[in-house]
Amino acid sequence: MEMKKKATIVDVAKEAGVSVATVSRVVNGNYPVKPETRERVQAAINALQYVPNVQARELNTRHSSTIGVVVPGLYNMFFAEVIDGIEKSMRRQGYSLLLNCAQNDPELEMECINALVSRSVSGIIVISPNTQGLREDFYRRIVKRVPLVFINGYHRIPNVSYVANDEALGTRQALEYLTGLGHKRILFVRGENSDSYTVKERAYRAFMTERGLFDEGHIVDIGEGNNIDTVTSARIKLMKTIPTLDPTAIFCCNDLMATGAIRACKRLGLSVPEDISVIGFDNITLSKLVEPQITTMDQNMFQLGSNAAAVLVEMIHGGQSKRITLENILITRESTGPCKIPE
């Protein structure tokens, strides 16, 4: 079947009875056009099903309508919900997203960002950047070329905007909740290559030390914390750790780890929360689908994304960098309960 020839800007101009320049002005919105002329051009565009050449338009206006987004992985629903907030906010502003996945690899993260810069995106949002694993000067150089926003990034770099939950405070709130239930032997489960885990670990160390409860052996690193194997990795690691350390509660840095922790407890014949409590972090959809439902800290994922998008648009238009901090909310469900062992 012969493909229908695509309409061009010249076809639209002929159909509307105007010049090519007038059609360009209507499409780009960069010059005033009489309302009746605009309506005639728009009618021609609709009739011919004309689709403007975005690249040509961006060359003409010297403005890219594409935003780069770098994410550590695609298997954790936390990132999907943050991206949803970014996309909806950016779409209202006329921008589209170009998504890159860094696979929790600092070197690949740099490659992704360099690739986005080479594509002349208008700005870049990096979700949970691994700034500790990068050369100190990398982001300093990047932000001189393109506006940059970190979501849940904690390495302070001049002129980079930050939108984050107060994960340190959220960790303390979760631990206060557990100790309020009588728990003292609380495991801390984390992954690798993420500033977020490090921030939470520092808060855990400080909180437990203040109460004389800290034990270095209670920190459990499962390795990769944001991919399809995270649940299994957490389960396998904790099935070896729980019998030795005999905790009464487990704090997990995200809900994938918490799901793995619950599975480990079940395999070991422990009832959650009667024998052991499990608390997660993020409040992804999965936390409501597992049995028992997971008590967790809500990170306001959609708001993280939409706030980051708003800040980036401001920076694109010449605004200053900002730091925005959102509060976590404790969501109490079925996976936590009073400590039954007198301590």
Automatic annotation (TrEMBL):
UniProt keyword DNA-binding present: yes
PROSITE patterns according to UniProt: HTH_LACI_1, HTH_LACI_2
Keyword field: DNA-binding, Transcription, Transcription regulation
Record GO terms (molecular function): DNA-binding transcription factor activity; transcription cis-regulatory region binding
Residue intervals of the HTH lacI-type domain: 7-61
UniProt cross-references to Gene3D superfamilies, sorted A to Z: 3.40.50.2300, lambda repressor-like DNA-binding domains
UniProt-recorded name of the protein: LacI family transcriptional regulator
Biological source species: Mitsuokella multacida
Taxonomic lineage: Bacteria, Bacillati, Bacillota, Negativicutes, Selenomonadales
